[in-house]
Amino acid sequence: MNVTIWNEHRHEKKNPKVSELYPKGLHGAIADGIASDDLTIRFATLDEPEHGLSQAVLDQTDVLVWWGHIAHEEVSDEIVARVHKRVLEGMGLVVLHSGHFSKIFKRLMGTTCDLKWREANEKERVWVVNPAHPIAAGLGEYFEIEHEEMYGEHFDIPAPDELVFVSWFQGGEVFRSGCTFYRGQGKIFYFRPGHETYPTYYNKDVLKVIFNGIRWAGAPRGAAPKYGNHQPLEPLQ
Ligand code: ZN
To answer: Ligand 1 centroid vs 6 CA: distance in angstroms?
Structure first.
C-alpha cells in the first residue's frame, strides 16, 4: 500500500518546542510509528512545488494522511480540487487533528467543521464506541493521552457514516474523535488527537489507530461504477 503523509511543516520551523519534540517533523514521527513492510511511505509538505502533491504522486497514492493547522489558506485551490477528485475516485484520506479546518476536509464535508477548543494540558480519554470496527483493532475499551488540547462538541460535520471513538476531556467536554465518511468510491477517516506541542504521535495507541485507519481507508474495493445512459442487460421484449 502506498501512503503519502502530507504535513504543513510550519510549526516545526517556527516553534523550537515543536522541533525539539519532533526533530523529523510530525510526518517523520508518524511514519516511524506506523512503519511496516507492506507500507511504502512518502512525504509531501506545503512548501514543495505543488505542495508535493503532483498528479503523478496522487495517482500513486492509495492513502493520503493530512496534517495542517496555521496555513490552511496557503493550500492552493487547484491542488485541493486535485485531491478531492482522487478521493472520489477511491483514494483513502486520513485527516488528523487540526486538519478538521483544512480546505480538503471542509470541501468533502460541506459544513464549517468548527468546534470548541482549549489548550490547558488536559487528559483525554478516547473511548471505543464501535469495537467491531477494524480501526479499533487491538485497542482496549479506551485509551488515554495524558496531555492534549481539548476539542469539544458541537463539531459541525455531517453525521459520520461510522463513529468509532468518542473522547472525554478533563474539563468536561466530549468530542466525536474518530469518524468515518464515504464519498464517491473514497473512504475518509477523521482522527482528533495530535496537537503539535504534545508527544501524541509517540503514543502507541494513537499510532495503532492511524495504522488501522490507513489500512481501512486503503482496503481493496469493487469496480468503479459507470454513470449515464445505460443499455439493458436483458432483452426488453
Ligand atoms: Zn492543535
So the answer is: 16
CATH of the domain at 76: 3.40.50.880
Instruction: Give the residue with greater pLDDT, 221 vs 75.
Output: 75
Instruction: Determine, yes or no, domain membership for 227.
Output: no
- What separation in Å is there between the alpha carbon of 69 and the centre of ligand 1? 7
The contacts found for 16-19 with CB under 8 angstroms, 24 or more apart, are 17/197, 18/196, 18/197
CB 106 within 8 Å of CB 143: no
Ligand 1 center–CA 211 separation, angstroms: 20
**Does residue 70 lie within any of the structural domains?**
yes
Cα 155 to middle of ligand 1, angstroms: 15
Interval between CA 68 and ligand 1 midpoint (Å): 9
17 found inside a domain: yes
Nearest CA to 132 among 180, 183, 91? 180
Segment 89-140, tens digit of pLDDT: 999 999 999 999 999 999 999 999 999 999 999 999 999 999 999 999 999 9
Q: How many A from CA of 213 to the centre of ligand 1?
A: 20
Domain count, the chain: 1
User: What whole-number distance in Å separates Cα of residue 191 and Cα of residue 175?
Assistant: 11
Residue 125 lies in a domain: no
Please give the grid coordinates belonging to residue 53.
Answer: 502533491
Q: Which domain holds residue 16?
A: 2-110+177-217
